[in-house]
Predict the structure.
Amino acid sequence: MKISNKWLPILLILSLLLVACGTTAVAPEVEAPLIEEPQMEEEPVVEEPDSAPAEEMVLEFTDDLGRTIVLEELPTAIVSTAPSITESLFAMGAGDLVIGRDEYSIYPEAAFDVESIGPVFGDLPLEVILAMEPDLVIVAQIIPAEQVTQLEELGLTVYWQANPLTFDDLYDNLRSLGQLVGHENDAQMLISSLQDRVAAVVNTLEGVEEKPVVFYELDATDPDNPWTSGAGTFIDTIFTMAGGVNAGAELEGDFTQIGTEALIAINPAVIILGDADFGVTPEMVMARAGWDAMTAVQTGAVYPIDSNTMSVPGPRLVDGLETVARFLHPDLFE
């Protein structure tokens, strides 16, 4: 998402003028004619102003809605309305700036020390956010533009960031956040670390021709028609970069359902359970009627995963990439 949110105000340093005072030794008294010494004219004292006039610092950013965000100083009280924003800020060492978070921002553990603003799906808790008196509200793509307007009408400064679709997009988002909150160097260090890890996966898979078909289960409330991820999503990107083929790539929509018969026809070699966080186990999946016809079930290649590393568009997407690569190519990632 496109992100809005650094800049140190100009500090005026007052210099102390030190005046050195010296003493002269007293000479012995001698008789001598008095000679009148010439009087030195005192130079006029020029009083300097205590300080030079300060230039007002104005920081301007453009968020992913194309809006210009103006800050007069670095933010020190941020409300985050998305897990991806919260995780990113903490990962670059800016977690101490966060004074409010949405209820789904539960990583890292330190995020629990931040006051929750409650759920953000549907209507934003505008009055709760306003009462926190933030100097910056950072919102992600889950917040529609009209709600950004509502926040602005309350006098709040808002930065909107789009969800990344590629790792390069992720790096750009992190870089923008770092600039926004005055942690540019920390953000770049984080980006470099993530880039190295992604490169390690890509380099390990270089030249690998076998690309197993992988099915990602988002939700199987109806086990005969489970939800999965289609093409154009970050999950699809991860599967491709991890050396696999997304079983849902040919389905319509970013997130869609697929029937058991259609899934059996695709015959995934690997099944990854994004709904494991909700109690779904590999044993439950392998016991479903008809699923034993799939290669993944026959070989036991059904794996649980932390869904946040696949669907929260923050730094832990690299964790998801590494995990999926191990599932698809265990012989290369031991």
Summary: Confidence is low (pLDDT under 50) at residues 1-41, 43-49. The longest strand covers residues 98-102. The chain is about 30% helix and 15% strand.
